[in-house]
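hey can u run this one w/ zinc ion bound, need the structure tokens asap thx
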Amino acid sequence: MRIFDPHIHMTSRTTDDYERMAAAGVQAVVEPAFWVGQPRTNAGSFADYFDSLVGWEPFRAAQFGIRHHATIALNPKEANDPHCREALSLVPRYLDKDSVVAVGEIGYDAMTPEEDEVFAVQLRLAVEYALPALVHTPHRDKARGVSRTLDVVRESGIEPGLVVVDHLNEVTVGAVHDSGCWMGFSIYPDTKMSPSRMVEILRGHGLHRMLVNSAADWGRSDPLLTRRTGEAMLAAGFTDDDVDQVLWRNPVEFYGQSGRPHLTATAPGPASFQGSSILRGGS
Ligand SMILES: [Zn+2]
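ok here u go:
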């Protein structure tokens, strides 16, 4: 089983995690910029953080044969902190980096006017830089958060196929499916979404435009839950090819729209993954 985890915060994980992930089949990851816990004292600290996402963390991942990519943005939670707003002006210089495959995480946390503004500005950046966008949805009042998110995405004029709306569940998946955006799911040990619930969602909504991630971060989480979801799919009667579509080909296709992931280096599998045409291929 080859796995591309499309949303995982490796900064908060250990080398033991990298080792276990590699052994479980994880060959590529995308690490979105997010809130790192401790409130920041100044916007300059984002430069160090973004540098580590395009420098140090890919180096760490490469030691385990894992290809590391990043998404860069001012995240919604810190969009509310006046100390952090200046970081918006740092974002564009990172969007030119080769390992940056999307603008993200953007979207809503508490749905404040500040978040509205920062979300819209960064969707414009995605359009300007011709990059996909990774959109976080709030954990509280999720249904309202997702419907407002879809409104903002529509108003921005970004192509829906370039947007993944993440952290979905049974209640919110339908609206995102109908919008033409990609659907992201974060599988956690005891909250949000489990492998067995994920299998039911795949049964109900199909495999197309589906992205499954472990999101593993500072909280209780598990970087192997992508693998566990693949195993749950097989146990439920999905084929190896179905699992490969969800856990590998879908994230390759979505982030491939940036034109940047050099996945041939991490894809020893089918020859069809050689060359860039497949990265931009149809759906
Ligand atoms: Zn995240």
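The radius of gyration is 17 Å. anyway lmk if its weird
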